[in-house]
Amino acid sequence: MSRLNYHHLYYFWRVACVGNLTEAASQMHVSQSALSAQIKTLEENMNTQLFERQGRRLILTDAGQRVLAYAGDIFSRGEELEALIKRGITPKVQQLRIGVLSTMSRNFIEGFIQPLMQRADVRFSLHSRGMGNLLNGLRNHQLDLILTNTNVVSEGQDELWQSQLLARQPVAVVGPDAAPQAQSFPRGYESKRWVLPAPGTEIRGAFDGFCSRSQYEPDILGEADDMAMLRLLARDTGALTVLPTVVVKDEIRQGTLKVQMTLPNVFENFYAVTVKRQFIPPGITELLASQQGV
Fold it and tell me: Do residues 249 and 287 share a domain?
């Protein structure tokens, strides 16, 4: 199997960033024909077309877009390494790559990265993916850290992953109307409809158990595995839902959604996961330290 020629990949990266072969050749002090030949060789080795011509412009194909994402990561990290070795210092601007579980609360994610927004020496990128893709990203060094509501260490993978509990958020019944005036659940909820987390999720399991103990059968309008979608459904359908309160903090503050009740002893845990025995960028280490005790 032929190995990837990083010299060719570097030329592709520069041309893709500029978007014009002539200008890129001028910046790199090589001839346009030589640059074109290098990219053509890369395309032949990969057996895929990376650019399409539109007039004088080069437009990335879908495959080219994917290759560009990897190339940008490779060469930006290479520049950091060069700065670290040559000058013995951390680069002026750290690039931090954070993966987030696609179904997690956006409010929690924004709160987590808030310290980064105040820093001039940090640039971050957020990548929303499924759990399998996130762990692969960590394993393949494409991500520095992932945020999840699943403790991967408890799944028997503690030899590879290092997990830090960031927060425990209470889970509540939330809806647009005021809470029923009742002494105890399920009184006042007999005619209510529900939009609930998908079956198989921890929150849904806890709510189903709570309903079973209370001898209550919820009238389910819909289900979703995405917290943001549940928030919208509760807001727009008039149905009740079950969520960590952090998900709907803005709606609660504005009065569009109200907490009906907090489920007893039910929480959603949020974790930060890194790879053991791997260099962790200082910005990530400092960010995790700032979360302790929060």
Answer: no
Residue 160 and residue 93 share a domain: yes
94-101 and 219-224 beta bridge pairing: unpaired
H helical segments located in the chain: 6-18, 21-28, 32-46, 62-87, 106-117, 131-139, 202-213, 227-237, 249-254, 282-291
Q: Does a structural domain hold residue 134? A: yes
Q: How far apart are CA 106 and CA 103, in angstroms?
A: 9
Q: Which two tokens stand for residue 179?
A: 């809470």
Q: What is the pLDDT of residues 246-280, one digit of tens each?
A: 889 899 999 999 998 999 989 999 999 988 766 67
Q: Please give the model's pTM, rounded to 2 decimal places.
A: 0.63
Query: What is residue 10's three-state secondary structure?
Result: helix
Question: What CA dihedral angle connects 201, 204, 208 and 214, to 10 degrees?
Answer: 140
| Length in residues, the chain | 294
Helix (H, G, I), strand (E, B) or coil at 252: helix
